[in-house]
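Lab notebook, bench 4. The sequencing result for the construct came back, and we need a structural model before the next group meeting so we can plan mutations. Quick request posted to the team channel:

Model the 3D structure of this chain.
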Amino acid sequence: MSQSQESTNLNSKSEKKLGEIPISVLDLSQIVEGKTAADAFKDSLDLARHAEKWGYNRYWVAEHHNMPGVASSATSVVIGYLAAGTSSIRLGAGGIMLPNHAPLVIAEQFGTLESMYPGRIDLGLGRAPGSDRRTSIALRRDVTADDFPELVEELRSFFDASKTSYHAPIRAVPGEGLDIPIWLLGSSDFSARLAAYQGLPFSFAGHFSPDYLDRALEVYRTTFRPSKTLSEPYVMLGVSLIAADTNERAEFLSTTMQQQVVALTRGRPGKIQPPADLSSQLDPLELSAVRKRMESAIVGDRDTVERRLQELLARTQADELIVTSGIYDQAERLHSYEILADIAIPSGKATL
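Done. Here's the predicted structure in C-alpha cell form:
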C-alpha cells in the first residue's frame, strides 16, 4: 500500500469485510525456551517466506530491549535479513522506538534498506522506549517521549530533499529524497492525534492496549488533516491471534502468551515457554492480569477466529489488520497464520 491509498472513515456506510482488506504480520523474533537468537531469526525468516507465499501484505518486527525472549532489538538489521530472504512482501519496523535513537541514524539506516530493497520498506515509529528505565539510560539517549513530535519532524526532514541540499550542513546519505512510508504507532490517543495532524497512517496496538482503542481511532479520524502523502485516514490495527484446528487446542496454545503476561507481572521476563496448565499456578493479581490481557486476544478454531475478526472489523472499520501470534512451537505458529490466510486473504490458500 502506498501512503496515498484511500481509506474508509468511521462513518462509512460500506462495512469492511474479511477478504477485502490487507492482512499483515507483526513479529518479535521470539526466542523460545531451549533455543537461541540465531534460531529465532531462522524461524522469523521461515514465517516471512510463508507469509509472502500466502499473500500477507507486510511483515513488521518490533524494537524491544533487555528482554530474553525477544531477538529483534537491532530492528533494522533484522529487517535487512528478512528482506534478503524474501522477494516481494513489504518489510518494516513496528516500530522503531524513536526516543532511543538519533533521527539521522534512523534516516541513514532506513535509507540504506530502501536503497537495497526499493519499494519494500516501511518505517513505523513509536514513542515508548521499548524497555525499562535503566535500559533506556544504557541506550545513551537524553530524550523522553515528550520529545517525540520534534524527533519525528527531524527524521522526516532528512528524507525531504526540498529541505536539504549539497550546501546544507547535515544530510542523510542514503536517505535524502527517498519515499519511505512513515507510520506512527500508538497505544493511546497521543500518537493518534499526532498522526492525524501530520496526515500520516496510524497503527494502533490493539493487542496490548484495547481500552484506548475506540478513543484513539475516533481522535485520529475526526482530526485527520489530508497531506501530500495521505488523502484520508488509514488505520492498521494490531491483533493478538491464535488459531488452531480446535478451540481446545487454540486455548492450550494461548497459555504460552499467558505465561509471558505472568512473567512481566512478576518483573521477570524470560524466554518463550511451552504451553502448560496454569490453573493452579497463579495468584489473584496474576490471574486478573492474564484475564485482562486475553480479553482482546482472538483465540479459537477457524469458525471462532473468523467470527471474532469480522466482529472486530465491523466495530473498528480498520483499513488493515496486523496480527501477532505468540505460539511456542514454530509449526503451530505457521499453522495459525495459515488458517488466518485461508480465512482472510483471497490468495492465501497455500498449505504447509
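Strands lie at 23-27, 58-61, 90-97, 121-126, 182-186, 202-204, 235-243, 298-300, 320-324.
Will bring this to the meeting.
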